[in-house]
Amino acid sequence: MILKEYVKNLFFIMLAVNVIMFTFLLARKILYKEIERRRNEIKLVYEPKILSYIATGDRSGLSGDLGFLEKRVLKDMILQYSKVLKNGKKDDLIALLDRDKIVRSIRKKLESRDKWKRKIGAYEAGELNISEVARTLIDLVDGDEREQVYVASNALLKVGGPSYICRVLNRCLDEAIMEKSNMMYLIETIDEDIEDILLNLMRWDNLYLRTIALEACGRRQYRGILEWIFKGFEDSNKEIRISSLKGALSFKEFPYMEHFESLTRLVDDEAWEVRHFLAKNLKKVDDPRVIIMLKSLMKDENWSVRSSSGQSLLQKGDVGIEALVEMLDSEDRFAREKAREIVQREMLQNGLIGTIRSENLDLAVRLTEKMNITILEEFEEYEQN
Questions:
Q1: Which residues of the chain have pLDDT under 50?
Q2: Which domains does the chain have, with CATH numbers?
């Protein structure tokens, strides 16, 4: 009798617990759904106003007291449109929010034991320009987790600009912690003039930082790096030679003729990467000797070098096309096949014949005849196989 009563009571207790849990979960689901509906309504109201503010600077519809949920939605939209909010517009929108509360929220995330929360906090700090957490970001930059170091470095440079670039560069001396491409991206996010900082890196006895400086200065058109690029063409380290060529290639106008002899020596460089970027650079050099250099590089054993050489010849107009036509009869199989591939593609996709000037119609005729013979030979070879 006692056991029966005990089982009965246990059954009702479990039933009550299940009913309570079901009711709680149902209410929670209804509440979250209602919050999401309300968030969407708020977004529909404020998104056009934010886009209007970005386009025209009119923020008349973004004034007044905002509720808790409205501030949350506005914060999310600031993060969403962060890349196009310039010239203080982002700060104006952040001023509508409770900045102290945002700082506390981000700091809590940055100090969390959860690595994903730390990364989210670092991202928000950078996008919202929360400089108050710079010290905490520095601690994360000094950490050992690669993704965390990258995200925190990105945020630190956004909140502090050039003042923290040396700190980030020093941390990145360990190439295992951040790849060069990531460091280059971080430098590009800095809007301020950092020429002096980058040029100073060339005086450091560190290969990694010197290659970054050579390439970054080229991308930012800092002509103070020209002397180092010229020296880099002759450097004994292949990484410096490669980065010097990358830096030169990034310049809209580069004085190649001042050190043309250095370029000619790179045709026979032992590193295929050097020959590859040399071929890319030669398309910008206005000198008839370049055609001879590119024809030599078309015979290179490396596919990338041959491809870059062929593309550079195309950029040379009729004289380059003439060189490609000659390469169709080259004794070198690599050069012959690459020339055929490039010419066929350009004829089919970009109307290569139509790019030849009217005074050089004989070139167009020879090119057409040569390609017809080539196609016929390929067909006969296919039939035999």
A1: 375-383, 385
A2: 255-385 (1.25.10.10)
